Amino acid sequence: MLVEVKVPMLSESISDAVLLQWRNQQGDYIGRDENLIDLETDKVVLEITAPSAGVLTQIKKQAGEHVGSEEVIALIDADAKPATAGDTGAAAADQSPPPVSAGAGPAARKWMAEHQIEAGQVAGTGKGDRVTKADVIRFLDQAQGNEARRPEPEPDPPVIPVFQSRRDDKRVPMTRLRARVSERLKQAQNTAAILTTFNEVTMQPVMDIRRRYKELFEKNHQVKLGMMSFFTKAVVEGLKQYPIINASVDGEDIIYHNYFDIGIAVGSPRGLVVPIVRDADALSLADIEKTIRIFSDKAKNASLSMEDLTGGTFTITNGGVFGSMLSTPILNPPQSAILGMHAIKERPVVAQGEICIRPVMYLALSYDHRIIDGQDAVQFLVFVKNALEDPTRLLLQV
Fold first, then answer.
1. Which of 89, 280, 313, 388 has its Cα between 20 and 30 A from that of 78?
2. Is 253 annotated in the active site?
3. Identified catalytic residue from 38, 369, 376, 390
4. Does this model's pTM top 0.90?
Protein backbone atom coordinates (compact mmCIF):
# COMPACT_ATOMS: atom_id res chain seq x y z
CA MET A 1 0.00 0.00 0.00
CA LEU A 2 1.36 3.39 -1.01
CA VAL A 3 1.15 6.12 1.64
CA GLU A 4 1.41 9.79 0.68
CA VAL A 5 3.79 12.13 2.50
CA LYS A 6 2.14 15.55 2.56
CA VAL A 7 3.07 19.07 3.58
CA PRO A 8 1.20 19.89 6.81
CA MET A 9 -1.66 22.37 6.76
CA LEU A 10 -0.11 25.83 6.79
CA SER A 11 -1.58 28.97 8.30
CA GLU A 12 -3.16 31.52 5.94
CA SER A 13 -0.48 33.98 7.08
CA ILE A 14 2.27 31.74 5.66
CA SER A 15 3.06 33.15 2.23
CA ASP A 16 5.71 30.66 1.17
CA ALA A 17 7.34 27.36 2.13
CA VAL A 18 10.54 25.74 0.84
CA LEU A 19 11.82 22.19 1.30
CA LEU A 20 15.30 21.86 2.79
CA GLN A 21 17.57 18.79 2.45
CA TRP A 22 16.06 15.29 2.28
CA ARG A 23 17.42 13.03 5.01
CA ASN A 24 16.75 9.84 3.06
CA GLN A 25 17.08 8.65 -0.52
CA GLN A 26 14.64 6.76 -2.68
CA GLY A 27 14.75 3.09 -1.75
CA ASP A 28 15.63 3.69 1.90
CA TYR A 29 13.58 1.99 4.58
CA ILE A 30 12.24 4.51 7.08
CA GLY A 31 10.44 4.20 10.39
CA ARG A 32 7.13 5.71 11.35
CA ASP A 33 7.43 9.34 12.57
CA GLU A 34 11.03 9.52 11.34
CA ASN A 35 11.94 13.03 10.19
CA LEU A 36 12.19 12.99 6.39
CA ILE A 37 12.81 16.65 5.58
CA ASP A 38 12.55 20.10 7.13
CA LEU A 39 10.15 22.69 5.72
CA GLU A 40 11.27 26.31 6.00
CA THR A 41 8.52 28.94 5.98
CA ASP A 42 8.74 32.69 6.39
CA LYS A 43 8.02 32.18 10.10
CA VAL A 44 9.32 28.81 11.36
CA VAL A 45 11.09 25.57 10.39
CA LEU A 46 8.77 22.54 10.53
CA GLU A 47 9.63 18.84 10.49
CA ILE A 48 7.82 16.61 7.98
CA THR A 49 7.76 13.10 9.41
CA ALA A 50 6.89 9.73 7.91
CA PRO A 51 3.18 8.88 8.38
CA SER A 52 4.02 5.16 8.10
CA ALA A 53 6.98 2.81 8.17
CA GLY A 54 8.11 1.42 4.83
CA VAL A 55 10.32 2.06 1.82
CA LEU A 56 10.59 5.56 0.38
CA THR A 57 9.64 4.65 -3.18
CA GLN A 58 9.35 8.09 -4.78
CA ILE A 59 10.44 11.64 -3.98
CA LYS A 60 8.11 13.99 -5.87
CA LYS A 61 9.54 17.31 -4.66
CA GLN A 62 13.25 18.03 -4.42
CA ALA A 63 15.14 20.18 -1.91
CA GLY A 64 14.79 23.86 -2.69
CA GLU A 65 11.36 23.57 -4.32
CA HIS A 66 8.41 25.68 -3.17
CA VAL A 67 5.40 23.77 -1.88
CA GLY A 68 1.93 24.50 -0.54
CA SER A 69 -0.40 23.15 2.13
CA GLU A 70 -1.12 19.40 1.94
CA GLU A 71 0.91 19.00 -1.26
CA VAL A 72 2.20 15.44 -1.81
CA ILE A 73 6.01 15.42 -1.75
CA ALA A 74 6.81 11.69 -1.53
CA LEU A 75 5.36 8.15 -1.52
CA ILE A 76 6.06 5.34 0.96
CA ASP A 77 5.41 1.64 0.30
CA ALA A 78 4.07 0.56 3.67
CA ASP A 79 4.12 -3.15 2.69
CA ALA A 80 7.82 -3.21 1.78
CA LYS A 81 10.33 -4.70 4.21
CA PRO A 82 13.76 -3.30 5.11
CA ALA A 83 16.63 -4.57 2.98
CA THR A 84 19.06 -7.06 4.53
CA ALA A 85 22.70 -6.26 5.09
CA GLY A 86 23.69 -8.22 1.96
CA ASP A 87 21.38 -6.24 -0.33
CA THR A 88 23.55 -3.14 -0.38
CA GLY A 89 27.18 -2.86 -1.41
CA ALA A 90 29.99 -1.40 0.64
CA ALA A 91 30.60 1.25 -2.01
CA ALA A 92 27.05 2.56 -1.66
CA ALA A 93 27.46 2.64 2.11
CA ASP A 94 30.64 4.67 1.77
CA GLN A 95 28.90 7.23 -0.42
CA SER A 96 25.94 7.77 1.92
CA PRO A 97 25.94 11.01 3.94
CA PRO A 98 26.97 10.84 7.59
CA PRO A 99 24.04 10.00 9.87
CA VAL A 100 22.58 12.90 11.80
CA SER A 101 21.21 12.55 15.30
CA ALA A 102 17.44 11.99 15.46
CA GLY A 103 17.47 13.71 18.82
CA ALA A 104 18.60 17.02 17.39
CA GLY A 105 16.66 20.15 16.48
CA PRO A 106 16.39 21.32 12.86
CA ALA A 107 19.09 23.98 13.23
CA ALA A 108 21.43 21.50 14.94
CA ARG A 109 20.89 18.84 12.24
CA LYS A 110 21.63 21.38 9.52
CA TRP A 111 24.94 22.34 11.15
CA MET A 112 25.88 18.68 11.74
CA ALA A 113 25.23 17.85 8.10
CA GLU A 114 27.20 20.86 6.85
CA HIS A 115 30.24 20.01 9.01
CA GLN A 116 30.10 16.22 8.44
CA ILE A 117 29.50 15.46 12.12
CA GLU A 118 28.24 11.94 12.76
CA ALA A 119 25.44 10.97 15.12
CA GLY A 120 26.57 10.43 18.67
CA GLN A 121 29.59 12.72 18.50
CA VAL A 122 27.74 15.67 20.05
CA ALA A 123 26.35 15.47 23.58
CA GLY A 124 22.92 17.08 23.88
CA THR A 125 22.12 19.53 26.68
CA GLY A 126 18.56 20.36 25.61
CA LYS A 127 15.36 18.93 27.00
CA GLY A 128 15.48 15.13 26.92
CA ASP A 129 19.19 15.29 25.93
CA ARG A 130 18.15 16.92 22.63
CA VAL A 131 21.11 18.27 20.66
CA THR A 132 20.83 22.02 20.08
CA LYS A 133 22.68 24.30 17.68
CA ALA A 134 24.67 25.63 20.66
CA ASP A 135 25.85 22.05 21.39
CA VAL A 136 27.11 21.68 17.80
CA ILE A 137 28.90 25.05 17.91
CA ARG A 138 30.51 24.09 21.24
CA PHE A 139 31.68 20.78 19.73
CA LEU A 140 33.23 22.60 16.75
CA ASP A 141 34.93 25.14 19.03
CA GLN A 142 36.45 22.32 21.10
CA ALA A 143 37.65 20.55 17.96
CA GLN A 144 39.28 23.75 16.72
CA GLY A 145 40.86 24.26 20.14
CA ASN A 146 42.43 20.78 19.93
CA GLU A 147 43.83 21.64 16.53
CA ALA A 148 45.32 24.84 17.94
CA ARG A 149 47.13 22.88 20.68
CA ARG A 150 49.01 20.66 18.24
CA PRO A 151 52.79 21.32 18.04
CA GLU A 152 53.81 23.82 15.41
CA PRO A 153 55.68 22.32 12.42
CA GLU A 154 59.26 23.34 11.67
CA PRO A 155 59.31 26.66 9.80
CA ASP A 156 60.15 26.65 6.10
CA PRO A 157 63.31 28.37 4.91
CA PRO A 158 62.82 32.12 4.51
CA VAL A 159 61.62 33.22 1.09
CA ILE A 160 60.86 36.53 -0.47
CA PRO A 161 57.21 37.28 0.36
CA VAL A 162 54.80 37.59 -2.54
CA PHE A 163 51.56 39.35 -1.66
CA GLN A 164 48.44 38.36 -3.52
CA SER A 165 45.14 40.04 -2.74
CA ARG A 166 42.10 37.83 -2.06
CA ARG A 167 38.92 39.45 -3.37
CA ASP A 168 36.42 36.63 -3.18
CA ASP A 169 32.63 37.04 -3.21
CA LYS A 170 30.22 34.58 -1.69
CA ARG A 171 26.64 34.54 -2.92
CA VAL A 172 24.04 32.76 -0.78
CA PRO A 173 20.25 32.86 -1.12
CA MET A 174 18.22 34.53 1.60
CA THR A 175 16.41 32.22 3.98
CA ARG A 176 12.63 32.39 3.72
CA LEU A 177 12.54 34.14 7.10
CA ARG A 178 15.03 36.82 6.00
CA ALA A 179 13.25 37.33 2.68
CA ARG A 180 9.88 37.64 4.40
CA VAL A 181 11.26 40.08 7.00
CA SER A 182 12.73 42.19 4.19
CA GLU A 183 9.42 42.16 2.34
CA ARG A 184 7.36 43.14 5.40
CA LEU A 185 9.71 45.91 6.52
CA LYS A 186 9.81 47.42 3.04
CA GLN A 187 6.03 47.14 2.89
CA ALA A 188 5.81 49.07 6.16
CA GLN A 189 8.05 51.85 4.86
CA ASN A 190 6.21 52.07 1.55
CA THR A 191 2.71 51.98 3.05
CA ALA A 192 2.73 53.61 6.48
CA ALA A 193 3.61 57.21 7.33
CA ILE A 194 6.18 56.26 9.98
CA LEU A 195 7.17 58.83 12.58
CA THR A 196 9.15 58.30 15.79
CA THR A 197 8.89 60.13 19.10
CA PHE A 198 11.47 59.78 21.90
CA ASN A 199 11.61 60.10 25.65
CA GLU A 200 13.82 59.01 28.51
CA VAL A 201 12.92 57.05 31.61
CA THR A 202 14.75 56.76 34.92
CA MET A 203 14.98 53.04 35.64
CA GLN A 204 15.99 53.36 39.31
CA PRO A 205 12.52 52.49 40.76
CA VAL A 206 12.21 49.32 38.67
CA MET A 207 15.80 48.33 39.43
CA ASP A 208 15.19 48.85 43.16
CA ILE A 209 12.12 46.59 43.05
CA ARG A 210 14.04 43.89 41.20
CA ARG A 211 16.97 44.13 43.62
CA ARG A 212 14.68 43.95 46.66
CA TYR A 213 12.41 41.10 45.54
CA LYS A 214 14.38 39.12 42.94
CA GLU A 215 15.26 36.20 45.26
CA LEU A 216 11.77 35.92 46.75
CA PHE A 217 10.16 36.29 43.30
CA GLU A 218 12.32 33.55 41.79
CA LYS A 219 11.70 31.27 44.79
CA ASN A 220 7.92 31.67 44.56
CA HIS A 221 7.54 31.63 40.77
CA GLN A 222 10.62 29.69 39.51
CA VAL A 223 11.47 32.45 37.06
CA LYS A 224 13.65 35.56 37.26
CA LEU A 225 12.07 38.99 37.54
CA GLY A 226 13.17 40.82 34.41
CA MET A 227 12.63 44.23 32.86
CA MET A 228 10.35 43.07 30.06
CA SER A 229 7.41 42.22 32.31
CA PHE A 230 7.37 45.78 33.69
CA PHE A 231 7.48 47.23 30.17
CA THR A 232 4.74 44.88 28.99
CA LYS A 233 2.46 45.87 31.87
CA ALA A 234 3.18 49.58 31.36
CA VAL A 235 2.44 49.26 27.63
CA VAL A 236 -0.84 47.43 28.23
CA GLU A 237 -2.07 50.11 30.64
CA GLY A 238 -1.02 52.78 28.14
CA LEU A 239 -2.91 51.04 25.33
CA LYS A 240 -6.03 51.03 27.49
CA GLN A 241 -5.71 54.79 27.89
CA TYR A 242 -4.91 55.41 24.19
CA PRO A 243 -6.68 52.67 22.19
CA ILE A 244 -5.70 54.19 18.83
CA ILE A 245 -2.14 53.00 19.50
CA ASN A 246 -3.50 49.44 19.62
CA ALA A 247 -5.46 49.84 16.36
CA SER A 248 -4.58 48.91 12.77
CA VAL A 249 -5.46 50.07 9.26
CA ASP A 250 -7.53 47.93 6.90
CA GLY A 251 -8.07 49.75 3.64
CA GLU A 252 -10.02 52.88 4.54
CA ASP A 253 -11.13 51.46 7.90
CA ILE A 254 -9.53 51.60 11.35
CA ILE A 255 -9.79 48.41 13.38
CA TYR A 256 -9.76 48.91 17.16
CA HIS A 257 -8.64 45.80 19.01
CA ASN A 258 -10.23 45.22 22.42
CA TYR A 259 -7.53 42.70 23.37
CA PHE A 260 -3.81 43.09 24.06
CA ASP A 261 -1.56 40.62 22.24
CA ILE A 262 1.97 41.96 22.68
CA GLY A 263 4.76 40.85 20.36
CA ILE A 264 8.16 40.48 22.05
CA ALA A 265 11.12 40.51 19.66
CA VAL A 266 13.69 37.79 20.46
CA GLY A 267 16.80 36.61 18.68
CA SER A 268 17.10 33.17 17.08
CA PRO A 269 19.69 31.36 14.95
CA ARG A 270 17.55 32.26 11.90
CA GLY A 271 17.23 35.95 12.78
CA LEU A 272 14.86 38.13 14.75
CA VAL A 273 11.42 36.65 15.45
CA VAL A 274 8.42 38.13 17.27
CA PRO A 275 6.39 35.60 19.30
CA ILE A 276 3.12 36.86 20.77
CA VAL A 277 2.25 37.14 24.47
CA ARG A 278 -1.53 36.82 24.18
CA ASP A 279 -4.01 38.54 26.52
CA ALA A 280 -1.13 40.25 28.31
CA ASP A 281 -3.59 42.34 30.33
CA ALA A 282 -4.77 39.19 32.12
CA LEU A 283 -1.26 37.96 32.98
CA SER A 284 0.77 38.63 36.11
CA LEU A 285 4.42 39.71 36.00
CA ALA A 286 5.41 36.10 36.69
CA ASP A 287 3.17 34.78 33.88
CA ILE A 288 4.71 37.24 31.42
CA GLU A 289 8.27 36.34 32.44
CA LYS A 290 7.51 32.60 32.13
CA THR A 291 5.97 33.06 28.69
CA ILE A 292 8.94 35.11 27.45
CA ARG A 293 11.39 32.52 28.77
CA ILE A 294 9.53 29.72 26.97
CA PHE A 295 9.58 31.72 23.72
CA SER A 296 13.29 32.48 24.13
CA ASP A 297 14.13 28.78 24.61
CA LYS A 298 11.97 27.77 21.64
CA ALA A 299 13.60 30.44 19.47
CA LYS A 300 17.10 29.16 20.30
CA ASN A 301 16.06 25.57 19.49
CA ALA A 302 14.18 26.59 16.31
CA SER A 303 10.97 25.08 17.69
CA LEU A 304 8.61 28.08 17.55
CA SER A 305 5.26 27.18 15.99
CA MET A 306 3.21 29.21 13.53
CA GLU A 307 0.70 29.88 16.29
CA ASP A 308 3.45 31.42 18.44
CA LEU A 309 4.22 33.99 15.73
CA THR A 310 0.78 34.78 14.35
CA GLY A 311 -1.16 37.93 15.26
CA GLY A 312 -0.17 40.67 17.69
CA THR A 313 -1.50 44.19 18.18
CA PHE A 314 1.63 45.95 19.44
CA THR A 315 5.35 45.08 19.55
CA ILE A 316 8.20 45.70 22.00
CA THR A 317 11.80 45.34 20.80
CA ASN A 318 14.87 45.67 23.00
CA GLY A 319 17.98 46.75 21.14
CA GLY A 320 19.56 47.52 24.49
CA VAL A 321 20.58 43.89 24.98
CA PHE A 322 22.96 44.39 22.05
CA GLY A 323 24.21 47.76 23.31
CA SER A 324 22.01 50.11 21.26
CA MET A 325 21.74 53.58 22.79
CA LEU A 326 19.05 54.93 20.44
CA SER A 327 17.25 53.69 17.34
CA THR A 328 14.04 54.13 15.33
CA PRO A 329 12.23 50.78 15.14
CA ILE A 330 10.21 49.91 12.03
CA LEU A 331 6.55 48.93 12.31
CA ASN A 332 5.53 45.29 12.25
CA PRO A 333 2.54 45.31 9.81
CA PRO A 334 -0.39 45.45 10.23
CA GLN A 335 0.37 46.94 13.66
CA SER A 336 0.44 50.72 13.92
CA ALA A 337 3.06 51.22 16.64
CA ILE A 338 6.19 49.66 18.12
CA LEU A 339 8.17 50.52 21.27
CA GLY A 340 11.96 50.41 21.18
CA MET A 341 13.91 49.84 24.40
CA HIS A 342 17.62 50.66 24.65
CA ALA A 343 20.64 50.26 26.89
CA ILE A 344 20.50 51.58 30.46
CA LYS A 345 23.31 54.06 31.10
CA GLU A 346 24.15 56.17 34.14
CA ARG A 347 23.60 59.82 33.23
CA PRO A 348 23.45 63.13 35.10
CA VAL A 349 19.86 64.22 35.74
CA VAL A 350 18.23 66.99 37.75
CA ALA A 351 16.15 65.76 40.71
CA GLN A 352 14.61 68.18 43.22
CA GLY A 353 16.84 70.97 41.99
CA GLU A 354 20.09 69.00 42.28
CA ILE A 355 22.24 67.20 39.72
CA CYS A 356 22.57 63.49 40.46
CA ILE A 357 23.46 60.28 38.64
CA ARG A 358 20.60 57.99 37.63
CA PRO A 359 20.28 54.89 35.38
CA VAL A 360 18.47 56.19 32.31
CA MET A 361 17.01 54.46 29.24
CA TYR A 362 15.96 56.17 26.03
CA LEU A 363 12.58 55.03 24.66
CA ALA A 364 11.48 55.29 21.03
CA LEU A 365 7.90 54.92 19.81
CA SER A 366 7.48 54.55 16.06
CA TYR A 367 3.89 54.93 14.87
CA ASP A 368 1.75 55.18 11.75
CA HIS A 369 0.89 58.85 11.39
CA ARG A 370 -2.01 57.96 9.07
CA ILE A 371 -4.18 57.11 12.08
CA ILE A 372 -2.13 58.12 15.13
CA ASP A 373 -1.68 61.82 15.83
CA GLY A 374 1.50 63.09 17.41
CA GLN A 375 -0.37 64.12 20.54
CA ASP A 376 -1.62 60.57 21.19
CA ALA A 377 1.81 59.08 20.49
CA VAL A 378 3.60 61.49 22.81
CA GLN A 379 1.06 61.12 25.60
CA PHE A 380 1.16 57.32 25.32
CA LEU A 381 4.96 57.31 25.63
CA VAL A 382 4.80 59.72 28.59
CA PHE A 383 2.28 57.38 30.25
CA VAL A 384 4.69 54.44 29.81
CA LYS A 385 7.53 56.57 31.20
CA ASN A 386 5.52 57.63 34.26
CA ALA A 387 4.37 54.07 34.95
CA LEU A 388 7.96 52.80 34.93
CA GLU A 389 9.23 55.64 37.10
CA ASP A 390 6.40 55.00 39.60
CA PRO A 391 5.48 51.28 39.32
CA THR A 392 2.76 51.72 41.96
CA ARG A 393 0.69 53.20 39.11
CA LEU A 394 0.64 49.75 37.50
CA LEU A 395 -0.97 48.26 40.63
CA LEU A 396 -3.50 51.04 40.92
CA GLN A 397 -4.01 51.23 37.12
CA VAL A 398 -3.76 55.02 37.10
1. 89
2. no
3. 369
4. no
